[in-house]
Amino acid sequence: MIGFISDNLLIPILDFFYGLFHSYGLAIVALTIVIRLALFPLSAGSIRSARRMKIAQPVMQKRQAEIKSKYANNPQKQQEELGNLMKEFGSPLAGCLPLLVQMPILFALFATLRGSPFADVPYAVNFKVLPSEQIAAVEPKPFTSPRHSIFITESDHFPVVASLPGGTKLGTGESAQINLQTLDGDNFKNLLSKYEGGKSYTPSWKVTKGEGLVKVSSDGTVTGISPGDATVEGKIPGLAAKSGFLFIKALGQVGFYVDGSINWDIATLVGAFGLTLVISQVLSGRGMPANPQQSTANKITPVMITGMFLFFPLPAGVLLYMVIANIFQAVQTFLLSQEALPDNLQTILDQQLSKKQDSTSISPALVEGSERLPFEPKSGK
Fold first, then answer.
1. Is the preceding omega at residue 117 within 30 degrees of 0, hence cis?
2. Are residues 213 and 125 part of one domain?
3. Which residues pair with 123 in a beta bridge?
4. What pLDDT is recorded for position 77?
5. Are the CB atoms for 145 and 125 separated by under 8 Å?
6. Is residue 267 a part of any domain in this protein?
7. Of 60, 63, 126, 294, which is the most buried if we count CB atoms within 10 A?
8. Residue in 205, 234, 230 with CA at minimum distance from that of residue 128
9. Rounded percentage of the chain residues whose pLDDT exceeds 70
């Protein structure tokens, strides 16, 4: 499903914007905005639900405890009253459904930006090498990898898979060629020969696991040497992997710290991601009563996520998408925070804010007209 959405929805939109701007960086920005606008109704539902639950949760928890205590011996009545409570305030799970619905599109967008043309595309094949006397008893099971849309020119791209008709089990001394081909069965090498400069996208092959157990030639032919498990990877260069955009050196560049040097463009993107995440969280709490526990989590979470992305291998193009998406999310959160609440929730919010104001206005002055401070024990006189 993710491959279908990528090939039939996201890449055509990407082609359209590249045709307008002739810049893959601008195409990523435009694609992100279009997808976020399309998902606006779904994400708005999640934001509204989270806002309302933040207000209603303390009251709901108190009411739930009272209902369960009052009708402890009457499960049917208990469920009925809990249902009425959900009708009054809404279900805490209501905001999850919009998120689940949009997940396939977001995963497909993520996969699109991690693949061609923005990054080199790897095809990894796991082999099991068996002794030659055992391989005869193994029934061959054809292998086909997940497909990736490979760009050969700015306007020509094809879904390509890696296949092994005889499967991924090899006997020692046996060889099998990994075939890269389109869904129509056209050989990828023959496809490249039809395009000027097509040789630039010839895959490179290497053993990434189990070196010494297998060897691989430049045309993808794998030969078993010793029994064991091995992985062979073929990598097709991404058309725009080395294309820059604004301060980004290359959209396909991966890693904050590579070969002893810092990639400051990646660091800037990660920093911008963390900053926009903080801004979005601050906006989501506007006009809400302070929650010390939630406040601590809001401070720690952006730092943890930002720190993770410093060392998580994401191409610069994906990080660019994440920053733009966060900015869009912050704007959306700000707009939705201006919406009027239902009367019952507005009443609860006013009470919560009033209590907070009262608690902060209590003076640490002397109590009961004596010189005893609030934390001192009462005198025995």
1. yes
2. yes
3. 234
4. 75
5. yes
6. no
7. 60
8. 230
9. 74
pLDDT for residue 137 is more than 80 = no
Same domain, 92 and 137: no
Residues 94 and 9 in one domain: yes
Copy the structure tokens of residue 136.
């005869």
For residue 155, what pLDDT is reported?
A: 78
- How far is the C-alpha of 168 from the C-alpha of 146, rounded, in Å? 15
Q: Are residues 125 and 231 in the same domain?
A: yes
Specify the number of domains making up the chain: 2
Residue 380 half-sphere exposure toward CB, CA atoms < 13 A: 0
* Beta strands 175-177; 157-164: pairing state: unpaired
Contact criterion met (CB below 8 Å) for 221 and 181: no
Residues 128 and 232 in one domain: yes
Range of 98's domain? 2-107
Helix (H) / strand (E) element for 16: namely helix 11-21
User: Alpha-carbon distance 39 to 323, whole Å?
Assistant: 17
Task: Count each helix (H run) and each strand (E run) in the chain, helices first.
Answer: 12, 13
d(CA 315, CA 250): 9
Instruction: Please identify which residue in the block is written with the tokens 């109590």.
Output: 367
Whether residue 140 is found in the same domain as residue 225: yes
